[in-house]
Amino acid sequence: MQVSDSTSRILAGLLEARTGQQLTLSRRWRIETALSALLRERHIATMDELITILVANKDTNLSDQVVEALLNNETYFFRDRTPFDMLEQEVLPRLHAARKDQRRLRVWSAGCSSGQEAYSIAMLLAENPAKWDGWTVDIIGTDVSQAVVERARKAHYSQFEVQRGLGIQQTIRWFRENENGWQANEALKRKVRFEQRNLLEPAPSGGPFDIVLCRNVLLYLNNERRRIAFDRIAEAIAEDGALLLGAGETVIGQTTRFEADPTARGIYRPSGVAEGQQPVRFGT
Predict the structure, then answer these.
(1) Which of 70, 101, 203, 263 has the fewest Cβ atoms within 10 angstroms?
(2) CB–CB of 160/78 below 8 Å?
């Protein structure tokens, strides 16, 4: 199915208007793959017919479905294992010492997709029960897509999704197999809450958050929206909190609200200054 430049531009404009995310030229190859199932389901023969319906604005449910299909919801349990190792070895011990009096930890997984990242954090903490015994641990996952938020709440995953990142012992401990895949047990589901929220909107309630994971989300925002997203995170994170970004993301040249943690590569900390000011370096 041929996707013309004009069709690509219209769909990219719809996605950006509704979510703030850009469908860059390098990603427009996804359009046909992302929308083919929806076109079959709606008995729409061509992309031109789809655009005609969208432009006429007579089917708002269809535009919702198109936006949902175009979003990139790639995720898996303990994705790119290194960030979780850094959390376990560097960030969590520091926060455990700093919060020993309050005995409370708050975590926000922004752009959580179908929930694997948030559940990975819950499993990571639960696997060290002696350390976190008596603590109140709040984990929230948010995503712009209502469909993936609903999936996250159900916590039902295919065989492929479970095998992708989880070991046998973790699978057996936290999931039960059924004819359609694997269902997370209630003990794991109770550790996390989910809500639909755009990263460009105010942060969810429950902060300030000690850890914010916003991985592989900012890649899809333009510079101005990326700055807004950093502002939203900065407003919601604790003064000594930790921000984790994706491997291809950074705060350098993007915001003055955060700077690199000098002791943990890939971790960012609030700089304590407003946008446009120069950050004060740690240790000064």
Answers:
(1) 101
(2) no
Residues in CB range of 212: below 8 A, 6 or more apart: 107, 108, 110, 233, 236, 237, 241, 242, 243, 244
Tens of pLDDT, residue by residue over 169-228, are 999 999 999 999 999 999 999 999 999 999 999 999 999 999 999 999 998 899 999 999
Q: What is the mean pLDDT of residues 29-53?
A: 87
Reference 28, options 47, 50, 54, 9; nearest CA is 9
Percent of the chain with pLDDT strictly greater than 70: 94
- What's the predicted TM-score (pTM) here? 0.86
* pLDDT of residue 277 exceeding 50: no
CA distance 188 to 175: 9
Residue in this structure with the two tokens 């999936």, named with its chain if needed: 151
Please answer whether residues 93 and 192 qualify as being in contact, where contact means their C-beta atoms are separated by less than 8 angstroms. no
Of the listed ranges 86-95, 247-256, 270-279, the least confidently predicted one is 270-279
pLDDT at residue 241 tops 60: yes
- Return the structure tokens found at 90: 């560097």
The number of CA neighbours under 13 Å toward the Cβ of 58 is 6
Q: Are 204 and 197 in contact (CB under 8 A)?
A: yes
Q: How far from 137 is each of 9, 54, 113, 166, 282, CA to CA, in Å?
A: 44, 44, 21, 22, 28
Instruction: Give the span between the Cα atoms of 239 and 245, in whole angstroms.
Output: 17
